[in-house]
Amino acid sequence: xxxxxxxxxxxxxxxxxxxxxxxALTLEVDMGAHGPxxxxxxxxxxxxxxxxxxxxxxxxxxxxxxxxxxxxxxxxHPIATDWYLSLRESGQAAFYEPSDWAxxxxxxxxxxxxxxxxxxxxxxxxxxxxxxxSSLLTTEGDRRRARLELERKKPDGPKLASxxxxxxxxxxxxx
Length: 175
Prior knowledge:
This protein is 40% helix and 5% strand. It has 7 helices and 2 strands. The protein has a two-stranded parallel sheet. It is elongated and about 70 Å long. The termini are far apart. The model is unreliable at 1-9 and 22-30 (pLDDT under 50).
Protein backbone atom coordinates (compact mmCIF):
# COMPACT_ATOMS: atom_id res chain seq x y z
CA UNK A 1 0.00 0.00 0.00
CA UNK A 2 1.08 3.52 -0.54
CA UNK A 3 1.48 6.03 2.27
CA UNK A 4 -1.80 7.74 1.29
CA UNK A 5 -3.71 4.45 1.46
CA UNK A 6 -2.32 3.70 4.92
CA UNK A 7 -3.40 7.11 6.20
CA UNK A 8 -6.90 6.70 4.79
CA UNK A 9 -7.26 3.23 6.36
CA UNK A 10 -6.11 4.39 9.81
CA UNK A 11 -9.03 5.23 12.16
CA UNK A 12 -9.42 8.87 13.13
CA UNK A 13 -9.97 8.02 16.80
CA UNK A 14 -8.73 5.04 18.84
CA UNK A 15 -12.29 4.05 19.80
CA UNK A 16 -13.14 3.57 16.11
CA UNK A 17 -10.47 0.89 15.80
CA UNK A 18 -12.78 -1.58 17.58
CA UNK A 19 -16.05 -0.33 16.09
CA UNK A 20 -17.46 -1.97 12.97
CA UNK A 21 -17.14 0.06 9.78
CA UNK A 22 -20.90 0.63 9.44
CA UNK A 23 -20.94 2.36 12.82
CA ALA A 24 -18.49 4.99 11.64
CA LEU A 25 -20.66 5.66 8.57
CA THR A 26 -24.05 6.08 10.22
CA LEU A 27 -25.93 9.33 9.79
CA GLU A 28 -27.57 11.24 12.57
CA VAL A 29 -31.16 12.35 12.02
CA ASP A 30 -32.91 15.05 14.02
CA MET A 31 -36.18 13.71 15.40
CA GLY A 32 -37.56 16.85 16.95
CA ALA A 33 -36.57 19.84 18.95
CA HIS A 34 -35.34 19.66 22.49
CA GLY A 35 -36.43 22.02 25.21
CA PRO A 36 -39.90 23.14 26.19
CA UNK A 37 -42.87 21.67 24.41
CA UNK A 38 -44.25 24.13 21.85
CA UNK A 39 -47.81 25.36 22.28
CA UNK A 40 -50.60 24.15 20.02
CA UNK A 41 -51.11 26.36 16.98
CA UNK A 42 -54.39 27.81 18.29
CA UNK A 43 -52.73 28.73 21.61
CA UNK A 44 -49.85 30.66 20.05
CA UNK A 45 -49.88 34.45 20.04
CA UNK A 46 -47.17 35.15 17.47
CA UNK A 47 -47.85 33.65 14.09
CA UNK A 48 -45.31 35.62 12.09
CA UNK A 49 -42.23 33.81 13.39
CA UNK A 50 -40.90 31.00 11.20
CA UNK A 51 -40.97 27.83 13.29
CA UNK A 52 -39.08 25.61 10.90
CA UNK A 53 -40.81 22.70 9.15
CA UNK A 54 -44.45 23.05 8.19
CA UNK A 55 -47.02 22.02 10.80
CA UNK A 56 -49.00 18.91 9.87
CA UNK A 57 -52.54 18.65 11.20
CA UNK A 58 -54.37 15.34 11.20
CA UNK A 59 -57.66 14.17 12.68
CA UNK A 60 -57.51 12.50 16.07
CA UNK A 61 -58.99 9.08 16.61
CA UNK A 62 -58.50 5.79 14.83
CA UNK A 63 -57.42 6.10 11.18
CA UNK A 64 -59.73 4.52 8.64
CA UNK A 65 -57.16 2.60 6.61
CA UNK A 66 -55.10 0.73 9.16
CA UNK A 67 -53.35 -2.36 7.84
CA UNK A 68 -54.07 -5.76 9.34
CA UNK A 69 -52.02 -5.68 12.51
CA UNK A 70 -51.02 -8.60 14.69
CA UNK A 71 -52.94 -8.91 17.91
CA UNK A 72 -51.08 -8.32 21.15
CA UNK A 73 -49.35 -11.29 22.67
CA UNK A 74 -51.62 -12.91 25.28
CA UNK A 75 -48.60 -13.25 27.59
CA UNK A 76 -48.01 -9.47 27.71
CA HIS A 77 -48.68 -7.51 30.87
CA PRO A 78 -52.13 -5.81 30.74
CA ILE A 79 -50.57 -2.33 30.72
CA ALA A 80 -48.39 -3.22 27.71
CA THR A 81 -51.43 -4.66 25.94
CA ASP A 82 -53.45 -1.51 26.63
CA TRP A 83 -50.62 0.69 25.36
CA TYR A 84 -50.23 -1.31 22.15
CA LEU A 85 -53.99 -1.33 21.49
CA SER A 86 -54.21 2.42 22.19
CA LEU A 87 -51.82 3.08 19.29
CA ARG A 88 -54.41 1.64 16.89
CA GLU A 89 -56.95 4.19 18.10
CA SER A 90 -54.60 7.18 18.00
CA GLY A 91 -54.43 9.68 15.16
CA GLN A 92 -50.66 9.41 14.69
CA ALA A 93 -51.17 5.79 13.60
CA ALA A 94 -52.12 7.18 10.16
CA PHE A 95 -48.43 8.00 9.70
CA TYR A 96 -47.08 4.62 10.84
CA GLU A 97 -45.34 2.33 8.40
CA PRO A 98 -44.99 -1.44 8.94
CA SER A 99 -41.60 -0.86 10.55
CA ASP A 100 -43.22 1.49 13.07
CA TRP A 101 -45.72 -1.21 14.04
CA ALA A 102 -42.82 -3.64 14.46
CA UNK A 103 -41.15 -1.13 16.79
CA UNK A 104 -44.44 -0.78 18.68
CA UNK A 105 -44.60 -4.55 19.22
CA UNK A 106 -40.98 -4.54 20.38
CA UNK A 107 -41.64 -1.69 22.82
CA UNK A 108 -44.74 -3.47 24.15
CA UNK A 109 -42.68 -6.63 24.66
CA UNK A 110 -39.99 -4.70 26.56
CA UNK A 111 -42.64 -2.93 28.60
CA UNK A 112 -44.31 -6.23 29.44
CA UNK A 113 -41.06 -7.85 30.53
CA UNK A 114 -40.20 -4.89 32.74
CA UNK A 115 -43.65 -4.77 34.32
CA UNK A 116 -43.70 -8.53 34.94
CA UNK A 117 -40.46 -8.58 36.93
CA UNK A 118 -40.54 -8.81 40.71
CA UNK A 119 -38.16 -5.90 41.22
CA UNK A 120 -38.92 -2.31 40.26
CA UNK A 121 -37.52 -1.07 36.93
CA UNK A 122 -34.30 0.92 37.06
CA UNK A 123 -33.95 4.44 35.72
CA UNK A 124 -31.96 3.44 32.66
CA UNK A 125 -34.66 0.97 31.60
CA UNK A 126 -37.40 3.55 32.08
CA UNK A 127 -35.44 6.16 30.09
CA UNK A 128 -34.86 3.72 27.22
CA UNK A 129 -38.53 2.75 27.20
CA UNK A 130 -39.62 6.41 27.22
CA UNK A 131 -37.23 7.14 24.35
CA UNK A 132 -38.63 4.28 22.28
CA UNK A 133 -42.20 5.35 22.99
CA SER A 134 -41.24 8.93 22.13
CA SER A 135 -39.96 7.83 18.72
CA LEU A 136 -43.49 6.60 18.00
CA LEU A 137 -44.93 10.05 18.90
CA THR A 138 -47.10 8.58 21.63
CA THR A 139 -47.47 11.77 23.70
CA GLU A 140 -48.75 15.16 22.65
CA GLY A 141 -45.41 16.73 23.54
CA ASP A 142 -43.60 14.33 21.20
CA ARG A 143 -46.03 15.14 18.40
CA ARG A 144 -45.70 18.91 18.93
CA ARG A 145 -41.91 18.69 18.79
CA ALA A 146 -42.23 16.79 15.50
CA ARG A 147 -44.65 19.51 14.23
CA LEU A 148 -47.66 17.15 14.14
CA GLU A 149 -50.96 18.20 15.70
CA LEU A 150 -54.00 16.01 16.06
CA GLU A 151 -57.23 17.98 15.74
CA ARG A 152 -59.21 17.57 18.90
CA LYS A 153 -62.83 16.58 18.62
CA LYS A 154 -65.26 19.24 19.77
CA PRO A 155 -67.34 18.20 22.81
CA ASP A 156 -71.01 17.53 22.09
CA GLY A 157 -72.07 18.52 25.61
CA PRO A 158 -74.12 21.54 26.65
CA LYS A 159 -72.90 24.94 25.51
CA LEU A 160 -72.08 27.71 27.92
CA ALA A 161 -74.55 30.53 28.35
CA SER A 162 -74.10 33.60 26.24
CA UNK A 163 -72.80 36.78 27.86
CA UNK A 164 -75.11 39.02 25.80
CA UNK A 165 -77.62 39.48 28.71
CA UNK A 166 -74.74 40.84 30.79
CA UNK A 167 -73.79 43.20 27.97
CA UNK A 168 -77.41 44.43 27.77
CA UNK A 169 -77.54 45.01 31.52
CA UNK A 170 -74.27 46.91 31.40
CA UNK A 171 -75.63 49.13 28.60
CA UNK A 172 -78.80 49.87 30.59
CA UNK A 173 -76.86 50.64 33.76
CA UNK A 174 -74.66 53.06 31.85
CA UNK A 175 -71.42 51.15 32.32
